[in-house]
Amino acid sequence: MSTTATAPAAEHAQADPYALRPEDARPAPTAFRDRIRHLGPGFVLSAAVVGSGELITTTALGAQAGFALLWLVIVSTAVKVWVQMELAQWTILNGRTALEGYREVGPRIGRLSWINWLWIGMDFAKMFQRGGIIGGTAAACSVLWPVIGEPLGWGSLALWAVVVTVAAILLLQSGKYSLVERACLVSVVVFTLVTVSLAVGLPGTGFGYGGSELGSGFGFGIPAGTVGIALAVFGITGVGADEMTTYTYWCLEKGYARWTGPDDGSEERARRAEGWIKVMRLDALTGLAVCVLCTLSFYVIGAAVLHPQGLVPEGNEMITTLSRIYTDTMGPWAEYLFLVGAFAVLFSTLIGSTASVPRLWTNTLGLLGVVDWADVRARTRTIRVLTWCLPLLWTCFFLWMQSPVLMVQIGGIGGGIFLLAVVVAVWRLRHTGVPKRFRANPWLTAALVLSSVAILCVGVYGVLKTLGAVPE
After folding, report:
1. If DSSP states are collapsed to H, E and C, what string results for the chain?
2. For the whole model, what pTM was predicted?
């Protein structure tokens, strides 16, 4: 009888990706090619990131500001990874999620820290962004297959918004999300290769650019009238604050913390931790390379093709405006290539959000005492319920507002503000939950300092200029 009673418990403990058990510990690979085999979370994150930020916001910024903000695109994509890696290191060493770590950074308001409450507020702003992603995906489908009324008409957009949302939910409910992840990653890589090729080939077309245009992008200023979208770009391109937070969940589910094992104070455990942290850093930097390459390509294309024509993606016509990038340089046939690629990129981003956000909200409900996060059955049940409810709510946001670009920018500004709080949390957790042994590397420390200062300066400057405290 006791065996029957304990077997399910043992099965759930083994299946729980968030539980640390001594028997699950394993040494980390030391050879580079063996480390590559354990990569994953960074690619999943890149597949989710390469979408609304790069395709919509970054291209729109290039169309509006020309090459002037090229410096901001590079900073916003490259600077954040060091904060991301520091937060992930804390997770691997402690076996806990980012939201659990944020709660330790006081002061507390009720059961949560001020950062947890700020995350809740930020996520409501992000609902606009996710609605914009659904809207962009629906717009691509509406142009390709206008089933009700005119392309981009309300009826066609509404139908396709519901269809793509339910499709994402069903894919995740089927239990085959690993296959969906691989499919999304392939689609993003293919579309990125096409976009990079187009950006590199532009100098040979009527929309060419040269060294003088690229050099003008490093004046380190923000042109008048572009502050709002510049803030959105800084908050949304590359790995944003919500992606940094989500990355800790993927590191746990991949197994980096579980393979490190619980902290027993032994030298063997410390060496395992060092090994898996090295794997995580390689994973994060590989994902960064994808994001930087893709983001720069989208920005240069927007600045070179759309800006000279005065075309700025707005409203539901965002998809057709962006398609001009392809039709103006490759011919009318390329519009279909763009639409299929845009659908693949945006839908993969929707898949990433639909997979991650229910986990974050379930963890938050656990911190509030509403559900038992440690109970695998309760956690799984809550995630499944939220996987249905949240994407449908995002769809309602889009149907109410119907402006994908503006919706994505609202989410980006919210993410930019939350990013400042994440930097504060990372430094606090670094000194309370990371032993000196793991923060002794002076180069990594210097990179984290520069990253934090850049985030702080750009964030504060943008807020002050938005409020009118900084003259034009």
Report:
1. CHHHHHHHHHHHHHHCCCCCCHHHCCCCCCCHHHHHCCCCHHHHHHHHHCCHHHHHHHHHHHHHHHHHHHHHHHHHHHCCHHHHHHHHHHHHHHCCCHHHHHCCCCCEECCEEHHHHHHHHHHHHHHHHHHHHHHHHHHHHHHHCCCCCCCCCHHHHHHHHHHHHHHHHHHHHCCCHHHHHHHHHHHHHHHHHHHHHHHHHHHHCCCCCCHHHHHHHHCCCCCCCCHHHHHHHHHHCCCCHHHHHHHHHHHHHHCHHHHHCCCCCCHHHHHHHHHHHHHHHHHHHHHHHHHHHHHHHHHHHHHHHHHHHCCCCCHHHHHHHHHHHHHHHHCCCHHHHHHHHHHHHHHHHHHHHHHHHHHHHHHHHHHCCCCCCCCHHHHHHHHHHHHHHHHHHHHHHHHHHCCHHHHHHHHHHHHHHHHHHHHHHHHHHHHHHCCHHHHCCHHHHHHHHHHHHHHHHHHHHHHHHHCCCCCC
2. 0.85
